[in-house]
């Protein structure tokens, strides 16, 4: 048989079988991988009690318990001294920064000078008045009316009255100068900006030498931002359609963006009374709004993982027996 | 397979044909090719059936070896009334008992000589290896054992005819039927084939029928039956003088 | 028997081989081309369920949702996680000033869910650099056909600067459009503003839940449309089928392949059997039954079919592999069902033609051999 190996009858079929075997292997090996893959990074997910239960999800932002306070300045002027840096803790009344007070200082000095001058005038007028009164008393004490001339008496009476008037005037000038000094002191005090509450400095946007104006607000950046960061709060946006399902008051599970494996239990603080248009969390200035959200405030436990302004994903339990949340 | 005796049939006869007629339809008319043939073929003899073209000799032999139904009549081959068998029984009967040698050899072109010679055995269900061995023994006997692995187209006419003879004899049939075995061969190789055939095919319990009109080989016959127009006109050991 | 006649044998081989090649190769290209409609789905391997606006149809035909849809989906029990996914078209200006339409895909900022599984060049961490986009490999061919490395190239997208920092190994889309991957927040800047931007929410299913059940629950409770990965992939495929003439074109070619096979094989088969009718007659006379003859012919046909089919399949694989580097054929594969379909076609061709051809053999009288 081997001597007479037929190309058509033995070699070709053998080749065909080999070729088909290789083909089958190539086909099976070449089939595309259509399987699903586990995510490489943990996405945010409901955990623990909430994993298989009815819940409401929302996104939110971390904020201080006091909310963020944008510190302004009552007067405009050049900044002379910035006393705090971001991250500092300050007590209530601590100086944050000072604004150039030279003009106010000058008017204080001026007022002080006026006070001194008024006091001098008072002293001079008092002396003149005393002299005049003595002269007049001398004249009045003489038994002989003809000892002094009538005219002399009248002059002495006039001098006394004039001195008295001068004294009154000088006293009035003193009061005026004192008032001016007080005003100058108040202004100096107003040029020193102090912390309204105890808290943490979150941002400092001014430096010595910069001009601050009272025309703050609008789009301009606040000079200093601060807030009470112990505890931190989160402000969670819940779609208005989901509000009815919400178990208001229940603790929420919160994960920071990018660290979804971290799950923190936050306690309920309050719900904002007003439903507001959803504030964009996507950085896009052009984003317009078509949804309204209820904002819930939750307090975070002390944690290194959260920073003010950070975005978070939150899961909140739904009301027990909330409609449409049963299986299926 | 009934084994009853038909009157006039010798029990030892290889073929006992009685009253065989055969009609062919040709359009509207019916042509009678055989007119009531009665003949016995005896084992151990080399029997020639001779006749002109159209004398009916091919039809007669087809009927006697069980591949063509007669219109009337009865054929017993070794006592079996073959046309009373079912189709399948008849096919198996042929496979077992009859060897065929054809004018055109009709070897299968894609298999070698040994495999061609082994076809009847393989068809009987003998394992291919054993069948080839038996065929090779026979090919050796026919002096072409060294050609056993060749394809038919690599063999000469005489060699092909020997392969065909081997195919006819490999299963040891009791009846061998040859149709013009020498017609396609030149005189000398025809002669050699016939010598060989006589040597290996003829044995006391085997009948051998050869259809031919090749007068070069008439002298090898034990018995010659001459057919003319569907009738036997001569039956003897020699050819009649008028041929 | 057949092998005895080289001409007819090779004719049959050619007929079967050609048919197989035509059917297998055309169906392969068809399936792969149509599956390009689902490439967006397959390019986000993590997502098990896709949530979209009810009018969205496929990954590329979508209508954006409000941003709170993400929270709604996250609230559904059985949702393990949900992340935003943005798909939008934009125009990009290249350094040369050419304008090219691109698909911008914004993946989740933190987890990068929604990216293709592999990066061809670079690492997924490049996404955290500002203004990063990652281009897909088709895009490299389209935008940087001169062979220059696209890494570090600047593009202009919606007046924003974008820097190519990596190449993703992605399955091309049906239109082979350039695709830029970026983070969701950057994508919002790169794509001109519209009211809503969130195209899809990709959802992972909690353990013990099936995507189908979760998708049904999401649909029921949010009113959004949620499809499993398989459904959305099918939708993409159906979209291509419904909106292009591709099925008809390929269907015609496959049908022609079949007809050519039937014609060549049928004719050759009939001729072959007719040529050998004497041999068959001889076999029948010797005592070989019809069923044995049919077996013989069947074995011969099987042999021819095997070899021809092998030629066709191997040819198809060689074709697909040979053109594998061409971006048009990127990711092309031969679904295992297709060789089975062409095998069935071969069997049908051989059975049909063999049956017609063998009838004459079966009808042959054994007596014919003596004439």
Structure explained in plain terms:
The complex is a heterotrimer of chains A (328), B (243) and C (371). Chain A has 328 residues and is of the alpha+beta class. Chain A has helices at 7-30, 102-141, 150-190, and strands at residues 55-64, 69-71, 77-82, 89-90, 95-99, 192-194, 199-204, 211-212, 224-227, 232-239, 252-256, 264-277, 292-299, 311-317. Chain A has a 6-stranded antiparallel barrel. In chain A, strands 2-9-7-4 form a 4-stranded antiparallel sheet, with no helix packed on it. A 4-stranded antiparallel sheet of chain A has the order 6-5-3-8. Chain A is rod-shaped. Chain B has 243 residues and is α/β, with parallel strands linked by helices. Chain B is built from 7 helices and 10 strands. Chain B has a 6-stranded mixed sheet with strand order 6-7-8-3-9-10. Chain B has a 4-stranded antiparallel sheet with strand order 2-1-4-5, with helices on one face. In chain B, α6 (157-169) packs parallel to α7. Chain B starts with 14 loop residues before the first strand and ends in a 7-residue tail after the last strand. Chain C has 371 residues and is α+β, with helices and mostly antiparallel strands. Chain C has helices at residues 6-35, 39-42, 69-74, 137-143, 184-190, 211-222, 229-243, 246-275, 277-286, 290-322, 337-363; strands spanning 49-52, 79-93, 99-107, 118-121, 132-136, 154-157, 160-169, 178-183, 200-205, 225-228. A 6-stranded mixed β-barrel of chain C has the order 2-3-8-5-7-6. In chain C, β2 (79-93) and β3 (99-107) form a beta hairpin. Chain C is elongated and about 95 Å long. The mean pLDDT of chain C is 86. Chains in contact: A-B, A-C, B-C. Chains A and C meet through α1, β1 and β10 of A and α1, α3, β2, α5 and α6 of C.
